[in-house]
Protein: Isochorismate synthase
Organism: Escherichia coli
Amino acid sequence: MDTSLAEEVQQTMATLAPNRFFFMSPYRSFTTSGCFARFDEPAVNGDSPDSPFQQKLAALFADAKAQGIKNPVMVGAIPFDPRQPSSLYIPESWQSFSRQEKQASARRFTRSQSLNVVERQAIPQQTTFEQMVARAAALTATPQVDKVVLSRLIDITTDAAIDSGVLL
């Protein structure tokens, strides 16, 4: 069953620039810029080399290399339901960085910067989110639902610009 309890809580919210991506893990960290090509093929049977997903992916990587992107990567997200469109793209460029150096730099920076919260907005509001949690918890007792993923945003405005790289 594919159901979103948040469908009734549609809100406009700020998002990251569509042509930037940030990835950090203990094993590899990089940022990207630009967008060479978008890829929305559903990932159904995506682990099979002869699937439409893999075939179109290979063609897109070949196109990127033919256009001069030396080591193309693909970033973005594949939905929980692989029948839904993927949200992936090949950036025009990417740069690796050291996770340890980034974290050390962020610690030094945050000691010298003072931010004050001037506005805070929960999306959805607390009471609506609590109702969503109660409904989701009740649904887990039925055969209709296999798993529940819940989240909410807290949109915070500060009195000075925030370096998102420092937060991550």
